[in-house]
Amino acid sequence: MILIDLISRLMGVKQRGNRWSAICPAHDDRSPSLSISDGNKGILIRCWAGCTVEEICRSLGIEPKDLFYDASLPRSQRPAPRPPQLNRRSLAFQFEIGALDLRLRAERIFDAAKNLDGSVLTDDEIQAALGHVCQAYADHERAKLFEHIADTLRIRDFTERIAHEHARVA
Fold first, then answer.
1. What are the phi and psi torsion angles at 86 (to 5°)?
2. Cα gap 170→166, rounded to integer Å
3. Minimal CA–CA distance to 44: which of 14, 18, 78, 9?
4. pTM for the full model?
């Protein structure tokens, strides 16, 4: 199925940029709550009122598999899926943010542990506090790992860009 085929089955269709909205056929919709867009492998649909894809497809007389562009082709004739492009810089940034979050959380726990008076705590409270401190040390170590991964991703991105520039110049 292609996008136009699906849109032709819907009521109250309006184009909004590269997306479409329509009245959801799976419930008594008074204002368009169905969002439709073109995906890499098929048609993406979502009812913002909460209807499932299966309910929407059933009310349109189709099956969820019909939303995929190559659903009518036998599996052996379908194009092989392309792996998604890896954005190393973005991924490195995400690891850095994760590392920062872990470090800040660990530092807050370390600061709080410095001010604890063990003489006024019960054994269970001391045990819980030690558990939190142990977790803080683990978070601190995990932050180091995340930073190492981020550095590795940046180095690989840099060397790949240099290699592409040299190949383009040659």
1. -90, 120
2. 6
3. 18
4. 0.51
